[in-house]
Amino acid sequence: MIRNIILPIFAIVLLASCSGKEKGNNSQNASTEAIPVKVQKLEKTNIANTVEQTANLIADEQVYYAPASTGRIKQIHVEVGDRIKKGEVLVEMDQTNLVQAEVQLENLKAEYNRAVALNETNSISKQAYDAAVTQYEVAKSNYEFLKENTQMLAPFDGIVTGKYFENGEVYTGIATGGASKPAIITIEKINPMKAQVNLAEQYYLAIKKGTPVELKSNLFPERTFQGTVNIVYPSIDPSSRTFTVEVKIPNQDEALKSGMYGTINFFIGETETIVAPALAVLKLQGSNDRYVFINDNGIAKRVAVKLGRRFDDKVELLSDEIHEGDELVIVGQGRLINGSKLDIQNH
Questions:
Q1: DSSP assignments along 99-166, one per residue
Q2: What Gene Ontology cellular component terms go with this record (predicted)?
């Protein structure tokens, strides 16, 4: 009876043992199966060496426009947002004083011409001649001053960014209407735009007038604005160990505005480095650690990397374990672990 029970149990154990061996063999075969991948040979590439800094844009020129003396405003010919051309009449002040000065100038001009004619024939004393010339020159200077401050002309092509008085009001010479300085209107030259940037002193010898720069703004993600360094200030701030640089950026279509925030890249030469497709780089779950896989004689070798600069869909790889000529896995890397066999399918 006992013998009859033992035999079936022995058969079950034997069957389980055989089944376990078969599963073990299948698992071993799965672990050694080559994974299809594509690789790319790494090469060193010359890329621009840049310094990146953020900045606020300002107008190339900003003028709080007002006459030199107080007076009644006859007419303001522009509104906020108007484009202006150099020489265009922007503001006219009351012309009473100008008309009086013009009449006086004409009278003294006649006396001046008479004195010049008499002086040519030695028919006038030097004192009288000098007096006529002086009076005429003073009157002429006064007339030109009043004319300049009665008809206010645009000093450059630009845009009106502020208006603080209305026609008929008296300009008092005091800042009003939100202006930070005494002005009737504010005008800006916005082509080009400029920015002042503080850079670390280590770049002082690399940045020069004419150094190319690029501006990028979140408002125009698809555009890159080219410019150059215009001024390198000749001193370094001892507290921050930085120096100031002014850049100018052409703005023909006036897309850039005063106060706009952007990132400026300074190009200070070239450097040789390894650049790879960004998709080839994997991220360790739960951390910021990055890694790639290299073909090591048909075996996947996992290599930790740090990311440098980005160039569209490529990224700079920083690692002492990566060298020119290495084969980087660029397709199929998501299925790999360190030591995986590779089935390289490049054609």
A1: HHHHHHHHHHHHHHHHHHHHHHTT-S-HHHHHHHHHHHHHHHHHHHHHHHHHEEE-SSSEEEEEE---
A2: efflux pump complex
What's this model's pTM, rounded to 2 decimal places?
A: 0.62
In whole angstroms, what separates CA 140 from the centre of its chain? 48
Task: Choose among 152, 123, 146, 1: nearest CA to 69.
Answer: 146
Structure tokens at 129: 């001649």
Structure tokens at 302: 């996992």
Q: Which two tokens mark 114?
A: 């008479």
**Residue 186, amino acid:** T
Give every CB contact of residue 20 below 8 A, 6+ residues apart in sequence: none
- Alpha helix (H) residue ranges in the chain: 2-31, 96-120, 126-150
What sign does the CA torsion over 178, 180, 183, 187 have? negative
Whether 300 contacts 328, CB under 8 Å:
no
Splitting the chain (347 residues) into consecutive groups of 10 residues, what average pLDDT does each group show? 43 42 42 87 84 93 92 95 95 91 91 90 90 93 88 94 94 87 95 95 93 94 94 95 96 93 90 89 90 95 90 87 93 93 86
DSSP state of 337: -
Is-cis flag, bond preceding 192, omega within 30? yes
Q: Give 14's contacts (C-beta < 8 A, 6+ positions apart).
A: none
Give which of 108, 167, 161, 117 is closest to 138, Cα–Cα: 108
Other beta carbons less than 10 A from residue 318's beta carbon: 14
Closest CA to 213 of 244, 235, 246, 189: 246
In the chain, DSSP assigns E strands to 35-41, 44-56, 58-65, 71-76, 83-84, 89-93, 151-153, 158-163, 170-171, 185-200, 212-216, 225-232, 242-249, 261-277, 282-283, 290-296, 299-311, 314-318, 327-331, 342-344
* Residue 343, phi then psi, degrees to nearest 5: -110, 90
End-to-end CA distance of the chain: 70
